[in-house]
Amino acid sequence: MNIIVTGGAGFIGSNFVYYMLKNHPDYRIICLDALTYAGNLHTLEEAMKNPNFRFVKGDIADRECVYKLFEEEKPDIVVNFAAESHVDRSIENPEIFLKTNIIGTQVMMDACRKYGIKRYHQVSTDEVYGDLPLDRPDLMFTEETPLHTSSPYSASKASADLLVMAYHRTYGLPVTISRCSNNYGPYHFPEKLIPLVITRALEDKTIPVYGTGANVRDWLYVEDHCRAIDLIIHKGREGEIYNIGGHNERTNLQVVKTVLHELNKPESLITFVTDRPGHDRRYAINPEKIEKELGWNPTYNFEQGIKVTVKWYLEHRPWWEKIISGEYQNYYKSMYSNR
Ligand code: NAD
Ligand code: DAU
């Protein structure tokens, strides 16, 4: 089996590369990644030593590059992780989100049509459903929840999902889509809440919490997400959407306090800052479909996953110190200095 994994130098994509090399040692994994600010070749250093792994630097929206790769590798499966993924950046500069997340998806699917494919899998997000009220814990996103996006990021991901389903219906492309809740774990770029809290707390710096910290996210350890995608590409039904989530809802303030407690750092580091515009209040996934159809269940609860994650950041200081010592400093200043 030849699998093209796009965005494999990013957070979830790299975890998926390692998951597949470990669990399917006979597969060939080809990573296509443009190495944007979020892509990191150091993350793939171990994978590079494996003869069944190939890294190709390229943009998923670059048709010539993508077609050349399909001609060379004749993939059986494509898993498309590549995306601009940070909501705050999409609010500052939406355009690149449209190019990568929508046009990039189209180019990848055109290549699948031209060269043939057993399965095209689109890695989507629960953010396409919009948000839920804070005072209705009984409500959760199902696969039938209407799309109702808030940010340029989620709008671009929802657009891509619509294109994927259109390519299935119109051209018969064998597709699947997964919509997962917030991930956390190793190799998470420190612009996102959990790695940002860990890395700043370790340097005794303030922790910016948007608004009152009452917004709720439904956290899933990244390895559980990888296992779900592995199941979907092998056993999921064509043309179907699968929600992925592990019933681990927490307010942002609870998350920040849990991490600080784990690091033995004081809560006085917490600083409340101006809220994110259009900030989604609550995400909550109903994962019944993937549980019943494919027998998927998460193996980590939040408390276990956070312990493992904090330990990983403590043991991999050079990985994140290199990131936060560069261009990241300018990003942090421009995003947070006037908040
Ligand atoms: P990330 O930002 O950490 O990584 C994105 C990767 O894609 C990087 O390696 C980057 O270099 C690459 N990339 C960006 N533009 C590219 C392009 N034009 N061509 C090729 N490569 C490009 O993202 P992530 O958090 O790992 O998210 C991966 C996917 O999962 C995204 O599609 C995202 O929407 C989705 N998702 C993320 C979460 C989450 O909690 N992080 C949850 C649900 C779904
Ligand atoms: O739900 C899935 C989505 O989860 C993915 O599709 C996105 O790619 C991923 O980035 C993530 O989006 P969020 O916006 O939920 O993640 P983020 O880590 O940016 O923020 C989590 C929550 O924490 C959110 O309510 C905003 C808040 N926050 C975030 C940052 C960076 C803060 O309070 N302070 C911060 O500094």
UniProtKB/TrEMBL annotation:
Task: Please state the Enzyme Commission number of this protein.
Answer: 4.2.1.46
Enumerate the Pfam families for this protein: GDP_Man_Dehyd
InterPro entries the UniProt entry points to: dTDP_Gluc_deHydtase (IPR005888), NAD(P)-bd_dom (IPR016040), NAD(P)-bd_dom_sf (IPR036291)
Q: Which GO terms describe its molecular function?
A: dTDP-glucose 4,6-dehydratase activity
Where does the NAD(P)-binding domain lie?
4-307
Q: Name one GO biological process term.
A: nucleotide-sugar metabolic process
Q: Which cofactor does it need?
A: NAD(+)
* Catalysed conversion reaction: dTDP-alpha-D-glucose = dTDP-4-dehydro-6-deoxy-alpha-D-glucose + H2O
Xref: Gene3D superfamilies: NAD(P)-binding Rossmann-like Domain, UDP-galactose 4-epimerase, domain 1
Main enzyme class: lyase
**Protein name listed in UniProt:** dTDP-glucose 4,6-dehydratase
Protein's organism: [Clostridium] cellulosi
The gene from which this protein is expressed is rfbB
